Amino acid sequence: MKTLLRHLLILLCLLFCGFSLADDEAGVLRALNDYLKGTEMGQPAQIKNAFHPQAQLLLSHDTKPFWTVSMEQYSSWFKPLNNRNRRGKILSVKIDGDIAMARLKITVAPPYQAYIDHVLLKQIAGKWQIVSKTATDQSAQYKNEKILFIASSASFHGDSDLPAGTSFSELVYAYDTFIKAGYEVDFMSTRGGALSLAYVNTSIPIHKRYLYDPEFMYAIGNSFAPEEVIASEYQAVHYLGGSNAMYEVAEHPGVQAIAMTVYEQNNGIVSSVCHGTAGIVNLKLSNGEYLVANRRVSGYPDSFERAGAEYLKEFPFMIGERIETRGGDFRYGERNKPFVEIDGRLITGQNYLSSVAVAEAMIEVLEKR
């Protein structure tokens, strides 16, 4: 009986702690989003809701090395219908009891400026509020160009219990290439939230580096849903592979709309690698033609799949066959070798080994625009 009671107490404690942590995270995110959205939209009341009335802001100033600004003064700078294009995103959050720290990235244009904010929050009288903020100008480290990585939210092959996920290699190799070149990368999945990952190997140095990078993991743990994405902000979309890319992506109207806005209205790039090419098979131009029609396209070849395997029985279609049906010219090279096709602003790769080459080709095209 004592053992049963002890187990019940432990269970209740775990449940209570779980709810408490979830409530704290929601409260912290609410305050941060009030700050980000309030400053984006020029809403002083929303900004004030994010900050404690006595909050202190330590900001950058050309002639004042220690420039503190009150919340009232700061919020008064933002007016409705502000013409400056200001955007912000959360890079990381750490909660300890009734305090929390967050790191944010803020971009403003034109002219392009990028800032990193460090924010201290505290739960006061049951409400999470920002009590202090400081910022540093990081404009020199970033380009005013953004890449949107697209992934599936599927965790299984179709309706089976066979696990599926986004290839971690395809994710980190491309991401690393773009970040080192100064581009900003955002993540979107078909349902938003945490990406399902596959083929993680900590014996590979770049895997280990990003697996233990809290900001990277926060980003892929909180990917945008399609309805949260502003397509006009991106210069390229990049469809990630992994076997889960066969599901949810190709038929998603929101994903299709974002990709074609980037391609046609932003004069941007559509790219994919490995099974990520499955995501582009249904994309149509505004004239009704398939994007891949009369174009050279690569991806994971049908002949490289394991014939008769259980996972293959769940595939809704075969990539190469579907590309050919859409009028495309599907091409691939040797197994386990990089292979990339560049056809204008459509750039595709055969496998995870092509990830860096695809990213480099995208950068080359972007920098020639």
From TrEMBL:
It comes from the Bacteria. GO terms for cellular component: cytoplasm. SUPFAM superfamilies: Class I glutamine amidotransferase-like, NTF2-like. Keywords: Lyase, Signal, Stress response. Residues 1-22 form the signal peptide. The keyword Calcium does not apply. GO terms for biological process: methylglyoxal catabolic process to D-lactate via S-lactoyl-glutathione. One of its GO terms (molecular function) is glyoxalase III activity. Residues 168-363 form the DJ-1/PfpI domain. The keyword Acetylation does not apply. InterPro entries: Class_I_gatase-like, DJ-1/PfpI, FrzH/put_lumazine-bd, NTF2-like_dom_sf, Prot/Nucl_acid_deglycase. It holds the Pfam family Lumazine_bd_2. Belongs to the peptidase C56 family. HSP31-like subfamily. PANTHER family: GLUTATHIONE-INDEPENDENT GLYOXALASE HSP31-RELATED (PTHR48094:SF11), PROTEIN/NUCLEIC ACID DEGLYCASE DJ-1-RELATED (PTHR48094). This is Peptidase. The lineage of its organism: Bacteria, Pseudomonadati, Pseudomonadota, Gammaproteobacteria, Alteromonadales.
